[in-house]
Design goal:
This protein has helices at 2-29, 47-57, 63-75, 90-125, 130-144, 147-161, 179-213, 216-223, 228-266, 271-281, 284-312. It is an all-alpha fold.
């Protein structure tokens, strides 16, 4: 088991290194000269001054040297300064936005797990009935709907037309902080964020439950007179959850992608909104830093998912 953990950590470190290289290459492949992002179009500079700025920023050095220099600073936690907010570091900006993003994603993932597992078990137990067909069709619609379309439709229907929830933001501007106000702003974007993940979890949970319910030990429990609720909850559910664990871990990456659209539509002050704003203003240090943090979180979650699966399933033998 320790060897397995060590191998997963090493592979995670390799993926993280590959991620840094990919971020650096993609940033350099963007159209235009990176130096243009540092120049104020209203302040004319001579070519000598532009060359001096390029030298000061290290942009005149070969690309491998630039990558190694950035990687070394990133390893020390120095992600540079924002080009649009000159007095703020990228690390500081990310630290301000991590909390709202974790709150939104944590709520969305929790909702998706609860809805997905419960409806998956229900449709498996009620197989080939009208509720099964209805929920399966709804899940297919949820999987097929892109995050930006779901966010826009949810905002229009729930906020604009029905006035059920605030149209955006983390809190009501100018109002005193309250948990109820925060919950009102959080519920709709978190629910919309969970739709795709909940539908996916439901489909996998239903298939896994149907397979387990046909096993011999489930039939034996029923033959012994064990109540159906106990058969489902005690004998079938625990074993059916094991294959879904990996899927739940992978939904973290989907939630991060969906959170970018949700935060943009609802003006939620998180990492997604920060990244989109940085792309619009060509704030390269923020783009690279935010992408590195988001990608690192996905890698860490996937590693933890693999380790937890190995721990909870005694049938897995590692060595």
């Amino acid at each position: 088991m320790l060897r397995y953990f060590a191998m997963r950590l090493l592979s995670g470190a390799g993926m993280l290194l590959a991620l840094t290289l990919l971020i650096f290459i993609l940033t350099r492949l963007t159209p235009g000269d990176p130096i243009d992002a540092y120049l104020d179009p209203n302040v004319p500079l001579s070519q000598e001054e532009v060359n001096a700025l390029r030298t000061h920023l290290g942009l005149d050095r070969p690309l491998p040297e630039q990558y190694l220099a950035w990687l070394g600073e990133a390893a020390r936690g120095n992600l540079g300064h924002s080009l649009q907010r000159f007095n703020e570091t990228v690390t500081g900006l990310i630290a301000q936005r991590v909390g709202p993003t974790l709150l939104l994603m944590g709520s969305g993932i929790a909702i998706s797990i609860i809805l997905g597992v419960s409806t998956g078990v229900f449709t498996a137990v009620r197989r080939d009935t009208l509720p099964d067909f209805a929920l399966s069709a709804t899940a297919l619609l949820g999987i097929s709907s892109p995050a930006f379309l779901t966010a826009l439709l949810g905002l229009y229907v729930a906020s604009v037309r029905l006035k059920w929830a605030p149209s955006g933001g983390l809190l009501t501007p100018g109002a005193e902080f309250s948990a109820w106000d925060l919950l009102q702003h959080l519920l709709l974007p978190a629910l919309l964020l969970s739709i795709g993940q909940a539908a996916l979890i439901m489909r996998y949970m239903r298939a896994s439950m149907l397979e387990v319910l046909n096993q011999d030990y489930v039939r034996t429990a029923r033959a012994k007179g064990v109540r159906e609720f106990q058969v489902v909850a005690k004998h079938a559910l625990r074993n059916a959850l094991l294959p879904v664990l990996t899927l739940i871990g992978s939904t973290i990456g989907l939630a991060i992608g969906g959170a970018i659209f949700i935060e943009r539509v609802f003006n939620w002050p998180g990492m997604g909104l920060l990244l989109v704003s940085a792309v619009e203003t060509r704030d390269y240090p923020v783009i690279m830093g935010a992408t590195l943090v988001i990608g690192s979180c996905v890698i860490v979650v996937n590693i933890l998912t693999d380790l937890s699966y190995a721990l909870v399933d005694p049938r897995i033998k590692v060595g």
